[in-house]
Specification:
Mean pLDDT: 77
Number of strands: 6
Strand order of the largest sheet: 1-2
Helix content: 40-55%
Structural class: alpha+beta
Strand content: 5-15%
Largest sheet: 2 strands, antiparallel
Distance between the termini: 69 Å
Order of helices and strands: EEHHEEHHHEEHH
Shape: elongated
Number of helices: 7
């Protein structure tokens, strides 16, 4: 943020980003301390009505920037009216901030890898399977072992199952030896 918005060094201590987990809200303290003469904050990434820090805060909270004017109606009551022109301009600046952030985040390969790793650890509920080939050898061994342990005796099947491969043996029994269903249930 400091780098992109060219925040003067003496203001960097007063402009800070805070996250509140309870409300899941981002806040930027001191966003109005930057003077109008800061080109990045009020021209490149901001407008005269909403500086770059205000737009960034809305972006972090996943809100579209809205600029309102206060007008008096016929009854003398004040009400807020959306200023379409300023809102459109602020929305363009919000997109410019997003683009600058996207460019910044992927620029450094180490930062990219660290963020991808952190995102995958915290946000991904599933992880793709990784195979090194050792599972195939185990499956072949269990198939051989359990197939030899399942053998017919007369019109019924006796099943001698190795304790570690009991469920796999039952699956293999149904695959390799398919007696009529009544006999299969009697055999167990």
């Amino acid at each position: 943020m400091y780098e992109t918005f060219d925040t003067p060094f003496y203001l960097q201590r007063s402009i800070e980003v805070h996250y509140t987990p309870f409300t899941a809200e981002w806040q930027i303290s001191g966003k109005n301390v930057v003077g109008q003469n800061n080109v990045a904050a009020y021209s490149t990434y901001g407008t005269g009505r909403a500086n770059a820090y205000k737009i960034l805060e809305d972006s972090l909270n996943l809100r579209d920037v809205r600029i309102y004017d206060t007008v008096e109606d016929a009854d003398g009551k004040e009400r807020r009216v959306l200023n379409a022109k300023e809102t459109t301009l602020a929305a363009q600046k919000q997109q410019a901030i997003r683009d600058a952030f996207r460019d910044w985040i992927w620029r450094d390969p180490e930062r990219r890898q660290a963020l991808v790793r952190q995102y995958n650890e915290e946000m991904n509920a599933t992880r793709p399977r990784e195979y090194d080939g050792s599972q195939e050898e185990l499956i072949r061994h269990l198939e051989k072992e359990t197939k030899s342990l399942i053998f017919p005796k007369g019109d019924k099947y006796l099943v001698a199952i190795h304790e570690a491969s009991m469920s796999r043996a039952m699956q293999l029994e149904e695959l390799y030896l398919k007696p009529p269903s009544r006999e299969r249930h009697q055999a167990r």
